[in-house]
Amino acid sequence: MTPDLDVAVVGAGIAGLTAAHELQRAGLAVRVYEAEPHVGGRMASFRYEGYTIDQGAEQISPHGYRATWELLRRLGVPLDDIPLIGKSIGMWRDGRAHPGVAERRALLTGAGLSPRARLDLARFLAWASRRRREFDPDHPEATPAGEATVAAFARRYHPDLHDYLFQPVAGSFFGWDTTRSAAASMLSLLVAVGDAASWRTYRDGMDTLALRLARELDVVVGRMVGEVVADRDSARLSVGGEVVTARTVLLCVPAPIAARLHANPPAAELAFLRACTFTPALKVSCLLDRPLTPESSRPLYVLLTPEAEDDVLSGIIVDHAKHPGRAPAGRGLLSLMANARTIPSLLEAPEQEVVARLTAAVPRYLPGFGSANVANFVHGFRYGLPEATPAALRARAGFMARPVRPVDYAGDWVMLRPASEGAVRAGALAASRTLSRLGASRPAARTAA
């Protein structure tokens, strides 16, 4: 039977859209299926009464995001659409915000670290600099950190480096429990992206890249894929009660979903899929009638709230400081990031309970918040970010050496890199693997509509 498509992509997140873009450029007939009514996955945004609300959280560095920048240039996205944030990340300690987290100046200013801890920070940075080339984000399983968890790695240094640097960064940006996730993935990413003072954002929302990619692709939204079955030279997927055949199916969804959808994966693939657990993510967007920012010696766009200080929040993103276009003139927008240990108890809770729990913690950091907060939205992802456990590190090399088959995968979890660059790189890798098997410009008999 002649396949309906050359490639069916399951998932319209950044990984799936990148893979589809690359394969369509090669002349193949590609269709993307997305269960949600919109594209972007965890990088989706929506607009409400002049607010641009990111459902996840994202920034982009001029370093360590090579594949993303190449894709943006190819799509013609101007640099003006990716402006410099120009604000600092602060750490809450002893009743106030300390700016300069993830910046070199933290050696002088402290950024929440005690004087003794700053000496150990200098020692850590010198060690990471000497071994920089060994921290390859594409191969986290091969770094000098080995399989140590973040908490175990941090025990080499003053306790402050865990409590007021590694834990808050891991907890807020990745949603990680430092006793479970491997230091290698986090350190590889931090070494690659460099100083936070150079980070940028998407002016019109974190879905900018997804929308630009989807504009030129055949994307079907609101269609749930039920099962994917690999045959010898092709694969079948059930979509809304119908069966679609493709020469290749790319599962560009979180690993637990991919494992559930793929009916007959080889045992070697299944081992890594099962090892790639995810942490859930939960945040509350707060629409303010005026712009509020934490008091600090330097303007902040993120305030990290360590577990040592707060067991409800992991951080507050000041979206209107990240970019003024996120909120109407004279108003404000915040994102409250839930503490990783708090999320499981709230993930299935009524939205009003989630809002009440998280917003009650804010006045400590932002006096006047209660009267300024006029509306809230809850965003939850059961599969927020790859957990990057030692078990996943151990299984990754074998998975990456797998032969190319009719069903393949893409996602940040493939790279064990919890950032959009990991998803872009995984999408490009999946496209390359697919082309090595199918070749280019040999479309199926019935091309995508």
UniProtKB/TrEMBL annotation:
<dbReference type="InterPro" id="IPR036188">
    <property type="entry name" value="FAD/NAD-bd_sf"/>
</dbReference>
<protein>
    <submittedName>
        <fullName>NAD(P)/FAD-dependent oxidoreductase</fullName>
    </submittedName>
</protein>
<feature type="domain" description="Amine oxidase">
    <location>
        <begin position="14"/>
        <end position="433"/>
    </location>
</feature>
<dbReference type="Pfam" id="PF01593">
    <property type="entry name" value="Amino_oxidase"/>
</dbReference>
<dbReference type="InterPro" id="IPR002937">
    <property type="entry name" value="Amino_oxidase"/>
</dbReference>
<dbReference type="InterPro" id="IPR050464">
    <property type="entry name" value="Zeta_carotene_desat/Oxidored"/>
</dbReference>
